Amino acid sequence: MTTTTPPTPSRPAIAAAPGLRDRRSNPLREGALIAGRDLLHWVREPWGFVFGLAFNLMLVLMFGFLFGGAIEVPGEGDYIAFLLPGMFALAMLFGLEATMTAMAEDSKRGITDRFRSLPIASASVALGRALADLANSVVGLAVLMIGGLLIGWRPTTGPAEIALGVVLLLWLRFALLWVGIFLGLRFRGTGATTAVQVLVWPIGFLSTVFVSAETMPGWLGVIAEWNPVSATATAARELFGNPTGVTSGWLAEYAVLAASVWPLVITLVFLPLAASAYRGLRR
To answer: Which residue spans traverse the membrane (predicted)?
Structure first.
């Protein structure tokens, strides 16, 4: 007489359940924890942030007091009042290479791979970096605004308009964060970081940050007007009650709309690209 032993349930069947980790995870909570880790690095090594902020303040002082007397604002108005909102927008762009460098370094040192091995959602790592960089940008923008107040810049509108102007500046920064995250995951070499640092300059200066597009040659003015940094700078000037340097054209009427739509388009393009680059990482 023989007996048959019932088959033992296969243990890998449990582990093979797709998406089990993600269903139990909380991307917002996990992203906040990872953001705390990134912020702790800034607290321990604050010099990159401090030097970046000092560089922006130096540009304000140089253009405001060294060149400002020779620059006229179309439609009249004080140049310092025109310059400061543009510098706020430019500061949102200048942080792009820092985000790229941080993501690239985490990837090269294997930190990103360690995160990938944990039972957390795939979006948590990039979201954590975005939250940390955004918090960094809030502090940097606050310091720049205080510095502007000390040298004579004044917003002349109400609290609601000023708050909306700040939100649009941070909205641009949030969109550009995904560009930096994607580039950091996709291109991890030193040469790529240097190339981005070089490219940020013409993008920032080929805008209405320092001068009005109406003072540029026709074709150059059109390019400057369609720059997302120009849209945010002009919208911030309008909402802060400062001279916009725009007397006619679509930017004079739709600056706030353009400053809302441009970052949305950038986010819709680069957030999926960043997610795809993260999923495509190999150990």
So the answer is: 47-67, 79-104, 125-150, 162-185, 192-213, 254-278
